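Appendix B, example 12.
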Amino acid sequence: MDIREEARKMKLAAPVLAASSADLRNAALQKIADALKEKKEEIFAANSQDCRAAEEDGISSAVMKRLYFNEAKLEDVCRGIDQLISLPDPVGRSLLRRELDKGLVLERISVPIGVIGVIFEARPDALVQISTLCIKSGNCAILKGGRETARTNRVLFSIIHDAAVSAGLPDSCLVQAELHNEIDELLQCEKDVDLLIPRGSNQFVQYIMNNTKIPVMGHADGICHIYVDRDVDEEMAVQVIIDAKTQYTAACNAVETILVHREIAPVFLPRLARSLARAGVRLRGTQEAENLIARSSETAAEINAMDIMSEDDFRTEYLDMIVSLKVVADVEEAIDHINRYGSHHTDSILTRDDAAAERFLQMVDSAGVYRNCSTRFADGFRYGFGAEVGISTSKLHARGPVGVEGLVTYKYTLRGNGQIVGDYASGRSQFHFRDL
């Protein structure tokens, strides 16, 4: 398959899909959900082959968790499709309507971005989420998944594409790229592809950004923090931290660094260290954190020796059962640390102090800033977006979990009756801006 030729076809199909009705796109989504359920055994069989091959290749346990597509994953993606169907149409909304002069009306209208290339990690449910989000938002999509789930992705794509086309969407609404060299071809399609969304390692995302003229949206790292303030419910804090670290370790919104107020650290840190160790989490931290934990004979008996970290080590994203620990003087030092070493993804403060919480929420420069809850809530489905194409740490266009609202832009229409700029430049006519 020639990706460049497919992108050219898709560019022509994009206006057709953009002009399709919300009813048609929702009907396509329903057909997709029905087809996935009907052909689930075919999907599961392909996924079993992929998972066996991955195990034989020695894939890490953290990555293996992403590869599985079972009944639970099928139920999750179908719930996401149901949620998408229930959402209002993001396309064709009037965002501004202004009369510039009598009979001259300007309108700003939401429209799909057009053709989107999404290169994502080996997680087959991502293919379902991304393709259905693009259909809901009226975008054509070129999809390239990870090679570890190539069989599963091939089956999923075939089911989704056939269902969408049978519902009346253009044949070129979705294209699947399977070969690695097709990524480099895709990067050269700046005339036909409007946006790239890469999902994967920092190194991979940087490669995409450095080798294309196409706008890129996404995030390179997920270095998420939780700051435990001095006035905190310690039991709640431990529960939130354990969830944020262990509920799904391989996710980009799993916490990587815990910051603890120095005033409570002598008591709280050993308690937290014991809970983390019992959950199977390996500890790394500053010398100060290690000293406080080692002072507790009960804690020292339960955990192995901590790795001592330098400041630059706090730029590490683990995606594994490892966490960094640091003691800070106050909320200001916590904010400074997060803004310096974080990836601007998602960070949380645990506190009963309203003033400290508001300072943290205001000053931490991240796409998601939370109070008294797990960083794992940074997710399009949990935000009610239906799903997400990814998390954006950019400040332009879309930020945080990118759902349907992040996949539309806008255009201006101007309706007149023969008006010419010369009349306004000469003063014969005057603008009288009035919002309608």
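The longest helix spans residues 22-38. The chain has a mean pLDDT of 93.
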